């Protein structure tokens, strides 16, 4: 029965009636009722599908607009990353959490959710349970953000530019950023994706800094190659007119891929995974998220 349910939802996610928030909700519903019959499969392909989907979205974006959006968000990005890491360190000590869990959740909140945790974890030589707790914390908050942010944006009458910037700063994972921004509008999606991917490049200096602070030697830092693919696709769409014929098809395929990605993420959030977070790590995640969301929204509304 669980395999049939999984297959039916997966097929639905490939139709025009599905959307990232709906796909996430269906995945969560499946995980809490019938269960995920293919946990190894969804875990293996979630990151890859997200990366290829992000590259595909690049074929619907203009490099000139992206540079302008990135230029506006760079100072905001630097301040929010540094501020989140410092606050995370202080709050983790106050909650008496382990240094590894504190740093993983802080990096996930500051940069790009699961991708940052996956990159920093090996540098820390973090244990599997520490990685699981940090990932579960971030994914639960991502699920909330995907539904809450568009509603808040509309209630505050945020512009497309404002909402895209807020998403990129305040939502952890790239998948949820793109999903929330796509639900808000095309311009919001362009702004959010560009700033979020520029933000994701901070994985490299933060991972290197982690190796120095935690005195880890002989570790390798992985380059987030899919960001380069996104930039390449955007440049092709801007400067090579021949790509315009296939660009809309690739963007449509990317959006379908993103919808399936959110379904996979939801299906992976079992009740056991949610319970494994525990009160203290979740409290740290919520504290950081509320502070960065509120502070960034205040700045956006008053500048």
UniProtKB/TrEMBL annotation:
Gene Ontology cellular component annotations, sorted alphabetically: plasma membrane
Keywords (A to Z) from UniProt: Cell membrane, Membrane, Transmembrane, Transmembrane helix
Transmembrane stretches, start-end: 49-67, 74-95, 101-124, 131-151, 163-185, 197-217, 223-242, 254-275, 281-301
Descriptive protein name: Putative sulfate exporter family transporter
Organism per entry: Hymenobacter perfusus
Similarity annotation: Belongs to the UPF0324 family.
KW Transmembrane helix (keyword) present: yes
Short name of one Pfam family: Cons_hypoth698
Localization in the cell: Cell membrane
Recorded topology in the membrane: Multi-pass membrane protein
């Amino acid at each position: 029965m669980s395999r049939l349910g999984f297959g039916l939802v997966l097929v639905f996610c490939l139709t025009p009636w599905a959307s990232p928030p709906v796909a996430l909700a269906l995945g969560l519903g499946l995980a809490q009722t019938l269960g995920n019959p293919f946990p190894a499969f969804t875990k293996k392909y979630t990151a890859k599908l997200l990366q290829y989907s992000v590259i595909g979205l690049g074929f619907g974006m203009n490099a000139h607009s992206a540079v302008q959006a990135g230029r506006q968000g760079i100072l905001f990005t630097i301040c929010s990353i540094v501020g989140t890491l410092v606050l995370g360190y202080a709050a983790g000590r106050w909650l008496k959490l382990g240094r590894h869990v504190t740093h993983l959740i802080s990096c996930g909140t500051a940069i790009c959710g699961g991708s940052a945790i996956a990159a920093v974890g090996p540098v820390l030589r973090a244990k599997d349970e520490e990685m699981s707790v940090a990932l579960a914390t971030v994914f639960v908050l991502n699920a909330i953000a995907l539904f809450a942010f568009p509603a808040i944006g509309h209630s505050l009458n945020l512009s497309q530019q404002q909402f895209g910037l807020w998403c990129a700063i305040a939502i952890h994972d790239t998948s949820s950023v793109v999903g929330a921004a796509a639900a808000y509008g095309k311009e919001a999606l362009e702004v959010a994706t560009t700033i979020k991917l520029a933000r994701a490049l901070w994985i490299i200096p933060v991972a290197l800094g982690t190796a120095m602070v935690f005195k880890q030697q002989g570790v390798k830092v992985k380059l987030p190659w899919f960001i380069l693919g996104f930039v390449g696709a955007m440049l092709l769409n801007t400067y090579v007119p021949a790509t315009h014929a296939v660009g809309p098809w690739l963007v449509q395929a990317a959006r379908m891929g993103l919808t399936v990605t959110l379904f996979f993420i939801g299906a992976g959030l079992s009740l056991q995974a949610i319970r494994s977070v525990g009160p203290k790590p979740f409290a740290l995640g919520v504290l950081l998220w509320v502070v960065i969301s509120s502070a960034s929204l205040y700045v956006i509304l008053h500048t």
